[in-house]
Amino acid sequence: MKIKLIIFFFIIFISKNLYSDETSDWLKKEIDIILEAYKNQSLSNENRFLLIEKTINNNFAGTGIAKFVAGEAWKKSDKNTKKIYIDNFKRHLALNIASMMQGYSDQTYELTKSKYDKKNQVTLIDMEVFSDTGSVVVTWRVKEAKDRFFVIDLIVADISLVVTKRSEFNSMLKKVDNDLSKFNKVLFEQNQISYNKITN
């Protein structure tokens, strides 16, 4: 009986490690697409960003993150306002991630550790980025849904991107009385400024 139990836990352990490796392989491929886009000098700034934006939107749980950071304002909004907000948020997220990844584009990186959080059903993957002055660790939180992987958060220096965005958006939403329709106009204008900076 004990031998069967040991074999069972061994199989579970191995399967989780394989799961984590599969997740890491997927993540590395997607990160490389973004970093290679920055190295491709034949691309215009606009086409480079559009390629990166497509990759980010395809691999981040943008809609779920958008709902979370909007908080109470989401519940009070109509369907059309929510749709506009999600589109605005996805571009906002892409602009943020693209800006961050640009800073890593001329550096080397390594996926150093992969750990499966059984309770939350999330894989945490550490990416160490190396530079002349040292290194920084970025932790990617990846979840499997509908037979594919999605990034649900990024943690840099123990600071969660999603939690930071929720706090930032909460402050901005208060200024427009938690009116998502008004906030959409603010976010759209903010996106335009960031988009012009990154593509010019």
What does this structure look like?
By secondary structure, this protein is of the alpha+beta class. It has a single domain, classed as Tgt2/MlaC (Nuclear Transport Factor 2, Chain: A, Roll), CATH 3.10.450. Helices cover 62% and strands 22% of the residues. The protein contains 7 helices and 5 strands. Strands 1-2-3-4-5 form a 5-stranded antiparallel beta sheet. A hairpin with a 2-residue loop joins strand 3 and strand 4 (148-156). Helix 2 packs across helix 5 (79-102), helix 3 (62-70) packs across helix 5 (79-102) and helix 3 packs across helix 6 (161-174). It is globular and about 45 Å long.
Task: Give the secondary structure arrangement, pairings included.
Elements (H helix, E strand, L loop, with lengths): L1 H38 L5 H15 L2 H9 L1 H4 L3 H24 L5 E10 L4 E10 L2 E12 L2 E9 L2 E2 H14 L5 H20 L1
Antiparallel strand pairs: 1-2, 2-3, 3-4, 4-5
**Measured distance between first and last alpha carbons:** 68 Å
* Count of β-strands: 5
Strand content: 15-25%
User: Rounded to an integer, what's the Rg over CA atoms?
Assistant: 19 Å
- Output the CATH homologous superfamily: Tgt2/MlaC
Largest sheet: 5 strands, antiparallel
Structural class: alpha+beta
Q: If classified by CATH, what would the architecture be? A: Roll
Order of helical and strand elements? HHHHHEEEEEHH
Strand sequence of the main sheet, in spatial order?
1-2-3-4-5
Helix content: 55-70%
Which CATH class is shown?
Answer: Alpha Beta
Q: Which descriptor suits the 3D outline? A: globular
CATH topology: Nuclear Transport Factor 2, Chain: A
Number of helices: 7
Q: How many domains make up the coordinates?
A: 1
